[in-house]
Amino acid sequence: xxxxxxxxxxxxxxxxxxxxxxxxxxxxxxxxxxxxxxxxxxxxxxxxxxxxxxxxxxxxxxxxxxxxxxxxxxxxxxxxxxxxxxxxxxxxxxxxxxxxxxxxxxxxxxxxxxxxxxxxxxxxxxxxxxxxxxxxxxxxxxxxxxxxxxxxxxxxxxxxxxxxxxxxxxxxxxxxxxxxxxxxxxxxxxxxxxxxxxxxxxxxxxxxxxx
Length: 211
Description:
By secondary structure, the protein is mainly α. It has 3 domains: 5-41, no CATH class; 47-97, no CATH class; 105-209, Cytochrome c-like domain (Cytochrome Bc1 Complex, Chain D, domain 2). 46% of the residues lie in helices and 7% in strands. It is built from 8 helices and 4 strands, in the order αββαααααβααβ. The strands form 2 sheets. A two-stranded antiparallel ribbon has the order 1-2. A two-stranded antiparallel ribbon has the order 3-4. The longest helix has 24 residues, at 47-70. It is elongated, with a radius of gyration of 41 Å. GO terms for molecular function: electron transfer activity; heme binding; metal ion binding. Residues 1-22, 192-211 are annotated as: Disordered. Keywords: Heme, Iron, Membrane, Metal-binding, Transmembrane, Transmembrane helix. This is Cytochrome c domain-containing protein.
């Protein structure tokens, strides 16, 4: 009959009195289990953990009752509806404070002669347009923008539409994806501001005259 290992192994607790490893402490509860002289502690859970656990249980009951029968806890659908309503209010407020620019002959005419708009348009022009039309609009690859001759029409709306749609067969890109409508309108204001400036080295006229 095999020997019980617990009876054959030395009880080290007697030689290691006071060692926490062997369970020889007086302030701990000891379970009846022992193996190779090592005793198993039976310590209670910390009080804060127990209270947290029971608090979670109580909260889950209140939450379930509130969301199922008494409606004092919002459902997912309620939260979603409230969030969408708040988002719609924020969007309406933003649109009221930042109205969307719509290009019309009247709105473009308001840009013409506005020094602030012209300055903003010039900044955009120097960044995107000067490489083809020259820093003063004199024309390089693209046509001269300072004379009264226009290939695709010279009204404010014509210029705006060319900026928006581009002229792909001539290498003129469409700027509708890169520039906001208001930025394109400011470009129109700048181009109108350089009409008749006759910069040095300007390209010969192209297109038809527009008074």
